[in-house]
Amino acid sequence: MGITLLEIKDLHVSVEGKEIIKGLNLKIQSGEVHAIMGPNGSGKSTLSNTVMGHPKYVVTQGTILYKGENINGFKADERARKGIFLAFQYPTAIPGVSVTNFLRTVLKSIRGVEIAVKDFRKELKEKMELLEMKDSFAGRYVNDGFSGGEKKRLEILQMALIQPAMALLDETDSGLDIDALQIVSEGINRLRASDRGMLLITHYQRLLNYVQPDFVHVLVDGKIVKSGGKELALELESKGYEGVEGSDKKAVAR
To answer: Do residues 58 and 14 lie in contact, with contact meaning Cβ atoms separated by under 8 Å?
Structure first.
């Protein structure tokens, strides 16, 4: 049995004075992949940003526990160093900064020590081979002129290098065509591990055709209204959010 990596208790979150998350409970153990699905505006991205510690998102009630420790007051960089990672829905371009230099800086920040160039290049090459990425990718500027699929693959490459215990993937399938979705999904599957938890946040079921979750949760109006296995995603596909929401408003995440 795995350890509890992330536990969210009665979480309430406001953005610019408006409550978005309205009493959310969730527990993720090591080795588990959870998916949160919900309509636009339900609070999915608010949840991921709050767990990561974005200052715009204010916790007004409840706690976020990471490995049993209350991290409500921790800044984003502190959470990252502890082993929490967020893959962004809309990664930012950084013209003039190469992928290699960017990733080396990221690792120095996370690990707290300078990494020798030779050691870093070896590590980077290993991870790029794991994700079937061409060597030329490392010399390009970060997300500058990247396709949607390339941006998301760089997020997965960061995850592969950082090796977080808890990974939050915010709408990783957003803007991807079917080929790019398959490639990104393969990368995610290769990074599944018994000592890692994952939270996939998505609007559509299609990502879950390639990355099979252990648990699926339906988020509507800031609350998880139903939880189940991977078959719940198929139910959403056929019934829509309203149909599933109305069937069980009292369901609580495990």
So the answer is: yes
Sheet of 4-15, strand order: 18-29, 4-15, 57-66, 69-70
pLDDT bucket at 1, cuts 50 / 70 / 90: low
SS3 state at 30: coil
- DSSP code, position 192: -
Q: Is 81 helix (H, G, I), strand (E, B) or coil?
A: helix
Q: Round to whole Å and give the CA distance between 143 and 75.
A: 25
What are the sequence ranges of the domains in the chain? 4-89+147-247
Query: Which residues partner with 70 through β-bridges?
Result: 65
Q: For 215-240, what is the mean pLDDT? A: 90
240-249 residue pLDDT tens: 877 765 444 3
3-class SS letters over 83-96? CEEEECCCCCCEEE
CA angle 61, 67, 72 (to 5 degrees): 25
pLDDT in tens, 197-224: 999 999 878 899 999 999 999 999 999 9
Homologous superfamily of 4-89+147-247:
P-loop containing nucleotide triphosphate hydrolases (3.40.50.300)
State how far the Cα of 184 lies from the Cα of 41, in Å rounded to an integer. 25
Cβ neighbour number for residue 127 with a 10 Å cutoff: 21
Mean pLDDT estimate for the chain: 91
How confident is the model over 45-72, as pLDDT tens digits?
999 999 999 999 999 999 999 999 999 9
Contacts for 220 with CB less than 8 Å, ≥ 6 apart: 38, 39, 42, 241, 245
